[in-house]
Design goal:
mainly alpha
Length: 239
């Protein structure tokens, strides 16, 4: 059965309901993570796409119905999932990509001087993400687990968890801008005709990192953080 995509729905809600749309949005250049609150209609209009035609094409792309497992997880399970899935991926993948990037710069840098800027942009992304992951793992996520288990409002050194969440959102925006710049610098992660196998592997890895980080940010911005805010509000009513 064909599922009709509503152009008035937000990009974030659409990916939560139909996770396979993440890849479609990536291809269309629609920001469903940091820009997840925008409606499909508004996002298409901003990109110069026909909202009605795009919604119809996306409806054809949806072959499976039902929310992703992570969309209905409890708070404590969702933070575990994010750590085990996205944090672990980044911990393993970022050093590998740094090595690949250094290799292709050394081999191809003279013929492709633009690689120096590409490498600098990637290292800026890594420099932003690594401390960000540590702050989540050591500070924010433990507090979220405590909040999930609490029967009364817990007392945190930061006050409301809205405060560290606000910082995380700002850092997500910064990484999102760097990823967009990396895509531009690599011509949508397209290696040149004279690129070697390592060149192709590096750019494919960068594309995968972008896709995974977009989904990672979506899960936090549009699913996890709203759940935290609602849980705090619920506990605030407990006497």
């Amino acid at each position: 059965m064909r599922h009709m995509i509503d152009p008035a729905a937000s990009l974030g809600d659409l990916v939560t309901m139909h996770p396979q749309l993440a890849r479609e949005f990536e291809a269309l250049g629609l920001d469903y993570c940091c820009g997840g609150t925008s409606t499909l209609w508004d996002a298409c209009s901003e990109r110069g796409l026909d909202p009605t035609a795009t919604a119809a094409e996306l409806s054809d792309a949806v072959t499976e119905l039902g929310e992703a497992d992570w969309a209905t997880m409890r708070l404590e399970d969702l933070v575990d999932h994010i750590e085990q899935t996205h944090h672990r991926y980044l911990d393993e993948e970022m050093p590998r990509l740094s090595t690949l990037m250094a290799k292709i710069v050394s081999v191809h840098g003279e013929r492709h001087p633009e690689l120096a800027e590409t490498a600098a942009c990637y290292e800026a992304i890594r420099a932003d993400l690594e401390p960000h992951l540590l702050k989540e793992e050591r500070v924010l996520f433990p507090m979220i687990r405590e909040l999930a288990a609490a029967k009364h409002p817990p007392s945190f050194h930061c006050g409301s968890l809205r405060n560290p969440i606000s910082m995380m959102l700002s850092e997500h925006d910064a990484v999102g801008e760097l990823l967009a710049r990396l895509r531009r610098l690599t011509s949508d992660f397209t290696p040149p005709a004279d690129g070697c196998a390592s060149y192709a592997a590096c750019f494919a890895g960068l594309a995968d990192l972008e896709a995974d980080t977009h989904l990672h940010i979506h899960k936090e911005n549009n699913v996890l953080f709203p759940l935290v805010v609602r849980r705090e509000a619920e506990l605030a009513t407990v006497r």
